[in-house]
Structures are given as structure tokens and as C-alpha cells.
């Protein structure tokens, strides 16, 4: 079981526009999807696509929270959801013919420590993955205490969330190059190696369309296949979910990394997490390139 603990869940609205986005002008929506959202939900979708067990955990609130619960159930995804105050946020993605959408994300309701405590008591057994942004007002000390109370979680976050993950001795962090630079001052593979050397925290470094690298006792790089991207949103979440599923299934680090990179590429090629398919990921594995860094 992979438990995707998501501190700031959302309703994700993806709108396809009738023409390229021009500020100050009228645009009409030619396609709309609304889905349960947040990095952990995308991760859980990937795990399920490969036949694994996954669970989405988080705090929801208001009418949007109930809509979130209904949408998650409609997809057949398992959820451990704690009702809190405020309104679950909405995140908008505008597709207008460009390779990358315009994203508009609300902040979400403020941190609710009592709801979080109740939620943590209800988590099922499994590998906990703390995914995405923190709720507004989350104190660093409170987040650190939560991580210390978990069994060496995986953390996919940024800023103070990554700092706390390293301090707590997380089993793995998944920054992109920009997030790693914010943590260490550099987004390079050498920086990830130095971070592992001094902390013992493994690093899964994502590099967008260029692929990903794993840094631990083993160090591997995988170059991504060349694809035509329709919607890359959620590709990093899909990559991480696939990597964790593959490792739990007994795959070696390099094989898991190749499949994960292929899955992230398939997500972008097919149009996002709702359209991701395991078969497409497996077909792209042969087009990845495994490197052993010097």
C-alpha cells in the first residue's frame, strides 16, 4: 500500500480554450474536466494503473470538499479524508494549444492541526508519501513533528517542506532541479550527491523533458524519450508513483527509474493523469536511455 498524504487537496478544473490565451480578451471553453486533485491523487492514479494499492489522505472542507469526496469515489480511488473547516481550494489549468498549460491555483484553507492529528491516526499501514504544497500557515515545527511521527516517509514538496524532510531523515525526497537549488544552492547531480552524503536521504531528481536521476547508494540517470507533449501537468507525480510501485514490486533501482521516466513521459504525451495508461508507459521504456554517472 502506498499512502499519498496530501496536505493541500484541491478540485482540479482543466479547461481547453478555443484559441491561444491573450490577456484581457474573451476566450470560450471548448472542453472541461473537473477531478479530485493534488499531487497525491495523481500519484495514487499511477500506482493503481500498474495494479498497486494506493490511498489518498488529506483534510477537506465545505461544498468543494464534498465534491472532492464524490469525485474520488467515482474514480474508484480509496480515500481517508478528514472533514475540516473552510473550503477545499480550486486549481485551474488553461489549455490553449501551447505545450504547457497556464495554471491558476488557489491557496486553500489554513492549516488545521486538530484535523491533521485525527487524520494521521486513521492512516492505513503502508509507505506514506507526503505530496505537494503545505496548507497556508503550516508552521515548520508542526510539519517537522508530523514527519518525525511517520515511518521514514517519502516527501515530494518544496521550500520549508523539503528542509523539514531532510531534517526528519525522510527515506526519499523528489525535488525538481529548481527545488533542489532552493534547498542546496544548486540543482545539479553533484549537489544531490552531497546532500545524500551528509544526510542519508535519497534523492529522486526530476528534470522535466530530460528525464530523472536517482541518488543513493547507487547513482543512476535516465534520459526521457522524445515525445509530443499534450499536457505535462502531473508528470512528476506519475513518475514518483510509478517508481515507488516498481520498487515495492521488487524492481531494481535502474529498472524502476526507467519505467518511472517512461510513465512521466506517457502522462505528458496522453494529456495528463486522468488519461494516463500503463501500457503507454511500458511501450516507452525501450526509448529511455540509462546512464551511469561518472
UniProtKB/TrEMBL annotation:
Lineage: superkingdom: Bacteria
Keyword terms, alphabetized: ATP-binding, Kinase, Nucleotide-binding, Plasmid, Transferase
InterPro entries, A to Z: PfkB_dom, Ribo/fructo_kinase, Ribokinase-like, Tagatose/fructose_Pkinase
GO-annotated biological processes: carbohydrate metabolic process
Residue intervals of the Carbohydrate kinase PfkB domain: 21-267
One GO molecular-function entry: phosphotransferase activity, alcohol group as acceptor
Family statement: Belongs to the carbohydrate kinase PfkB family.
Protein name, UniProt field: 1-phosphofructokinase family hexose kinase
